[in-house]
Design a protein that fits this description.
Protein name: Manganese ABC transporter ATP-binding protein
Strand content: 25-35%
GO molecular function: ATP binding; ATP hydrolysis activity
Domain ABC transporter: 2-234
Number of helices: 10
Order of helices and strands: EEEHEEEHHHHEHEHEEHHH
Oligomer: single chain
CATH class: Alpha Beta
Organism: Liquorilactobacillus capillatus DSM 19910
Mean pLDDT: 91
Pfam family, one: ABC_tran
Number of strands: 10
Bound molecules: adenosine-5'-triphosphate
Amino acid sequence: MIEFQKVGVVYNNEVEALKNIDLVIKGPTITGIIGPNGSGKSTLLKAALGVVRASGKVMLDGIQANKALKRIAYVAQKSSIDLSFPITVRECVALGTLPSLGLFKRITREEWESVDKALEIVGLSEQSQRQISALSGGQFQRVLIARCLVQNAEYLFLDEPFVGVDMVSEDIIIKILKDLKSKGKTILIVHHDLNKVEGYFDQVVMLNREIIAAGKTAQVFTVPNLKRAYGENILVERGE
Ligand SMILES: Nc1ncnc2c1ncn2[C@@H]1O[C@H](COP(=O)(O)OP(=O)(O)OP(=O)(O)O)[C@@H](O)[C@H]1O
């Protein structure tokens, strides 16, 4: 269970990105965090990870979340990742073993086996020796998902995992995430494509610096709530 208790984030003493966030997310779940541009979606994940200074508290099963980081696998927005870093697909996935391994220990044979298994699951076994710079956007996102699988964390925080991703990769990723949920994982996804919300998420957090609504998708993903979060123009965007 993730609990946000009165969480607020102000950047540079001037931009109030999040205000008074009180939120409880009970897993297993695939929860979508949606809201207009600049509504604080990424900041919500970063506040939980402790990578931005936040007021209030975020608790993970009763422990302060930033003290339980081994239990969270995080995939940042693709734009913030350096794709030119000289590393193979297999090595990149193996980085998922680091939280349990510590920096100076060798990766064991079992861990390499779990890396290869994860590559198989995401359908990239044949690409394992390629440089990550040679991959398509969708393949690279699958590499990052494979890294989460290796990390075997109970919580997955994914920031816009479907941006710049082809349909084949998107289908593979959502299938894997649904399988992880069925195995008890709690998955939070920052997402902007409203067409996919009902198909992908069992719960939704609708955000616009404050919580607009949160709960089961059918109850939260409604026209009145969408209008409150995005303004009247949302009806045009949804084609209604
Ligand atoms: N490091 C930062 N320094 C200053 N302001 C920031 C920083 N990061 C985010 N912001 C501002 O905080 C607000 C919320 O940003 P955030 O990235 O969390 O929103 P978002 O909903 O994820 O946006 P998007 O959909 O555009 O990715 C925005 O006004 C943004 O410009």
